[in-house]
Amino acid sequence: MPGIRNVIRTHHVDRWLWVYMPYTIMIFNFLTNLIVSTFTGPYTSGGVMSIYVFMMTLGIITVPMNFSFLLGLGVRRKDYYSGTVIWLTVHMLVASIVLAVLREIEKATSWGTGLGFFNFPFTNELGFLEFLALNFVVFTFFCFFGFLLPSIARRFGALVLAALLVLMFVVLGIASVLVTFYELWDEVGRFFATYQTDSIWYLIPFTLLFAAIAYLLLRRSTVK
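The line above is the sequence of ABC transporter permease; the predicted C-alpha cells follow.
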C-alpha cells in the first residue's frame, strides 16, 4: 500500500496536467461554441470530444513521465501499475460526473441559445446515472487504450509499437475498402443509428483487455 500511495502522490504533483488542463480546454471549446450559437441559433456541437481525446493523451504520457523515475526509487512494478490504474480510473469517474452534471444544466437551460454541447440526440433519453456510466465507459476505453501504447513501447520498443499502429490502420483501411466495395455503409449506418448507446457498452471488455495487457507488459519491461 505505501508504494501505491507514493505512485498516486507522484501523479498528483502535476495538478495542472491532470486537473486544470483538460477542463480548461473543454471550457474554451464550450465558450467558443456558445458565442457562435448566439449568432447561428440552436445547433449541436461536437466540441466536447476534445476532452475524450485529452483523456487518451493522459493515458499515453503517463508511463513515459514517471515509470522509470518511480521504479528507480524502489517502487515495485505491481504497485506502479495499481497506483496508476486507480489514479486514471478516479479521474475518468470525475470527468464523467462533471459531464453528467453539465449535461443536466444544458437540458434545463440550453445555455439560453439552444446550444447542444454536452448532450447529443442519441443520449437525450438517458437518465443521469446512465449517461454518467456511458461516459465512464468511453473515457476508460480511450484512456486505457492510450495507457497500452507506451506499455508496448516500453516492453518491445518504439519500432514494434509503430509497426502495430501501421498494421491497425492497414486493417481498418482494408475493412473500409471492403465495406465500400460491397456497398455496406448504409447497413453500418443503420446499425449504429439503431444501437448507438447499446453498442458503447461493448467497449468494456476491450478496456479490461487493454488494462490486462498493459499489466503483463509493464511487469516485464526494462527501466531506461
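Note on the example: Residues 45 and 117 are 5 Å apart (CA to CA). The two ends are 25 Å apart (CA to CA).
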